[in-house]
Amino acid sequence: MSRQANRGTESKKMSSELFTLTYGALVTQLCKDYENDEDVNKQLDKMGFNIGVRLIEDFLARSNVGRCHDFRETADVIAKVAFKMYLGITPSITNWSPAGDEFSLILENNPLVDFVELPDNHSSLIYSNLLCGVLRGALEMMAVEAKFVQDTLKGDGVTEIRMRFIRRIEDNLPAGEE
Amino acid sequence: MAIFSVYVVNKAGGLIYQLDSYAPRAEAEKTFSYPLDLLLKLHDERVLVAFGQRDGIRVGHAVLAINGMDVNGRYTADGKEVLEYLGNPANYPVSIRFGRPRLTSNEKLMLASMFHSLFAIGSQLSPEQGSSGIEMLETDTFKLHCYQTLTGIKFVVLADPRQAGIDSLLRKIYEIYSDFALKNPFYSLEMPIRACRGKATVGWCSGTWTLFTQPSWTLGPSWCGCFVGGRRQPCWPHKSLQPPRRLCSNCSAWQWC
């Protein structure tokens, strides 16, 4: 993690098992509350969005990355800095669209789904949909779309998130925007 | 204290957090006899000196206290109008304390939004393409430093002109904001930050800006581990009844307030 040497509070290490268990408890409770996979997916996305809008400040405060000038830089920063900082994994970026506004993040291992198996009655549940919401929330200054294309829980080899840039939202900060 | 105040302004220009550190203000108390040789006027619910600057009482200073009792805007502590009271020769000799008036919270809100607009104007007026807004404003008594994050939050610090290291202080305050405000799920974004139980402040310790956490209020022995301003100081109960000591999380020593 990128921290300064004399950081006031100690860096908190937590076991990833607790994290996986917490996330699992969250998803199963949502399934019980909503009983409909589509609603659960929407809720996870909303929750992820709320996390994302806060996480971006934490990320910017700790990582000192500058402004990204195009979507490729954004993709690089997301994969190499952000995912590394928060989940400890470095997804790879592939499948750029010709216009340069869509790409795929390939995650070899997803810490949220350690030991998880989707039962048959939840076949349309997107278990890690929180991640899509987080990506959307963190990039709320631009409208992006993030969705799961492949999922290891559904039998695919890797987890793939497809991200698409829709537009920049212009009512943002005034200083130095191009 | 080298840092005079900290302001945090949200994306829309609203003030969400403000902190004034204890700074000795220029005040002068004198006894006057009738007639008063200063010209006083009422402005913005305060009684200000309009003319007659002398002996530490300057134009623009406000009447802070009469005969030792703090005035309440334009009224004395008893509810009489200050100007009327001072116009009556029977009340003399009277001791009046003058000083720079403190900003009310409404005024601070207004000034923060004004700064937000000036910041935007600054970045648009700049002849350089893609320039940032106001980063520093220097006067002879203080320097205003501003850091705008990529998300539009501005952190503004007013400090002594000779104080160094304010850039790292601004980054540190950004980190603290992302911890204490954002990690609290009950805090709504862009809303004013309420001082919470775990109030933290930032100070200078061992050559860097560090986070101090305030312990619960206890009376205890007065000695100091760390020191601010380069001087070891005794700890006395602070007159604002805040805890006199803080625990430095950098070196885990008590530090005077």
From TrEMBL, chain B:
Keyword Translocase: no
Primary localisation category: endoplasmic reticulum
Lineage: Eukaryota, Metazoa, Chordata, Craniata, Vertebrata
Gene3D superfamilies, alphabetized: 3.30.450.70
Pfam family, one: Sybindin
Entry function: Core component of the TRAPP complexes which has a function of guanine nucleotide exchange factor activity for Rab1 GTPase. Plays a role in vesicular transport from endoplasmic reticulum to Golgi and autophagy. May play a role in dendrite postsynaptic membrane trafficking.
Name this polypeptide is given: Trafficking protein particle complex subunit
Compartment annotation: Endoplasmic reticulum; Golgi apparatus, cis-Golgi network; Golgi apparatus
